[in-house]
Amino acid sequence: MKKRRKKRVYHNWIKEIAEGKTNQFYNSTDFDIVREKVLERDRHTCQFFLGKWNDGIHKPDKIKIVKATMVHHIIPIKERPDLALDINNMVSLSFEAHEIVEERCHWKFKKKSKPLTKERW
Questions:
Q1: Angle ∠(15,27,87) on CA atoms, nearest 5
Q2: How many separate domains does the chain show?
Q3: How far apart are CA 76 and CA 66, in angstroms?
């Protein structure tokens, strides 16, 4: 769990996100608390690769269990700032699934293969 600040500052996130302060929102304690609740709700598993959630455009190649590290807003916060802290507007995704859904993935994620034998020179 992330260490929280002792002095808490309350923000009007709807107004600040509308002004374009999304980085400040993602680094806030408010988002961190909601993020942890969403990850606990989904049991830290990626809902995209589990087959329980898709965005209608992208679908997983195969069903597998992957650890979720990110939280994705189903309706983007730039379109609806009032849903920024709504738990029902968020889903747990792995890094790879989040890149696929956000269409930032232009390559396949492949693990480096280990050599069959060690070189002994």
A1: 70
A2: 1
A3: 23
